[in-house]
Specification:
It comes from Nonomuraea recticatena. This is ABC transporter permease subunit. This protein has 11 helices and no strands. By secondary structure, it is mainly alpha-helical.
Length: 261
């Protein structure tokens, strides 16, 4: 198995654990089962948190909503960015230049501040989606637009145009498949961005309401007990790092492969 396959398997494994972890936990993550900040024991591999709840059960159950929200936000930003980038890169008109300029202006906005403003007016998941779209779509648009502009005079594009195919057909059947690796790499970056935004907002208290387990909220909840049971803080931090790290690494490899073509 090559590096791409190994990383794809790693990403899939992390996502399966995150999305199906509550079933794997086999225990109620909201139930008090030990003394506050109890250390690891045979029945509690990662000990207990400040309310005596099973840390392992909460970690296994705490990634589902964060992952679903992040994937939804990343997909929305990627679809909008790819569609806008194909249009802006293919069309030489003023409207396309305005769209590209607007994307540059959005990239200058402080993303976390935008997300906080969105969180003040919208529910947590909607704020993550809004922040990811505002912060990620412009960058995707610029990347895809530049790649589309460069492909306008490629041999396979000119051959398709000479056959009488419409611009839409050329974009969807010729240019978009040619940039599949680039789109996949960019989607990975949008996922990482969405995870970061979701984690930041959840740490600040805009995520699921207690006692619902959440990896990011567990960082805030378990910080006071760091010396008593470090695993209660380290475990959700490792889970977040594993999710973002594996996706970022796979995205990097996809981008590298695209550049070498």
């Amino acid at each position: 198995m090559n590096r791409h396959g190994a990383l794809a398997v790693a990403v899939g494994a992390v996502l399966v654990v995150a999305l199906c972890g509550e079933t794997l936990a086999g225990a109620d993550p909201t139930l008090t089962v030990a003394a506050p900040w109890a250390a690891a024991s045979p029945g509690l591999p990662l000990g207990a948190d400040g309310l005596g709840r099973d840390v392992l059960a909460r970690v296994l159950a705490g990634g589902r909503e964060l992952c679903l929200v992040s994937l939804s936000a990343a997909a929305t930003a990627s679809v909008l960015g790819v569609a806008g980038g194909l249009w802006a890169g293919w069309s030489p008109g003023r409207a396309a230049r305005v769209a590209a300029g607007s994307a540059d202006l959005l990239l200058a906005l402080p993303l976390l501040l935008v997300a906080l403003l969105a969180a003040a007016a919208l529910p947590g998941p909607a704020a993550v989606i809004a922040g990811t779209v505002l912060g990620g779509t412009p960058l995707t648009l610029r990347v895809i637009a530049d790649a589309t502009t460069a492909a306008r005079h490629a041999g396979y594009v000119e051959a398709a145009l000479s056959r009488g195919e419409s611009s839409r057909t050329v974009l969807l059947r010729e240019i978009l498949p040619a940039h599949a690796g680039l789109v996949g790499a960019d989607l990975g970056q949008r996922v990482v961005l969405a995870v970061q935004l979701a984690a930041a907002l959840n740490v600040l208290g805009f995520g699921p309401a207690p006692p619902t387990p959440d990896w990011a909220a567990m960082l805030r909840e378990n910080l006071p007990g760091l010396r008593l049971n470090p695993a209660a803080l380290i475990a959700p931090a490792v889970a977040l790092a594993a999710l973002a790290g594996t996706v970022a690494a796979l995205s990097h490899l996809l981008a590298t492969r695209e550049d070498t073509r």
